[in-house]
Amino acid sequence: MVQVEKVLDQQDTALGVFLDIEEAFNNTSYDSMCATLAKHGVDYTTVRWIRATLEGWLATVTLGGTSRSIEVSRDCPQGGVLSSLLRCLVVDDLIARLNGGEVYTQGYADDICLLVVGKFPNTVSGLTQWDLHTVEMWCDK
Description:
Number of strands: 5
Structural class: alpha+beta
Distance between the termini: 32 Å
Order of helices and strands: HEHHEEHEEH
Number of helices: 5
């Protein structure tokens, strides 16, 4: 809120963007989650334990009496504390990349809010486009 009040007081330009990254965590690999844990200082043994709880799940589909199973290598079970923590830590990397200068970013899990502030509308628009490109690149990795 302080950023918005500052913009109003100084008669600057601000552009807010609210994102819900669709399927973001259905496509987040276990490798990515474990790398994020290590990056945040979680010890090796704990990272291995968490990976062991994530791995080994099978998805099975049956159609007309024929079944096929594959091992799941992405996402994590819904409803637990661990899955929310992993999702927040993974998105924290994106938020850290976006924050800085005239860009203010907040998020939780796959919901992100960007607030870009500047004197000139064209500059604000350009910064917003750069931020959205950064989000797109992050989603593609």
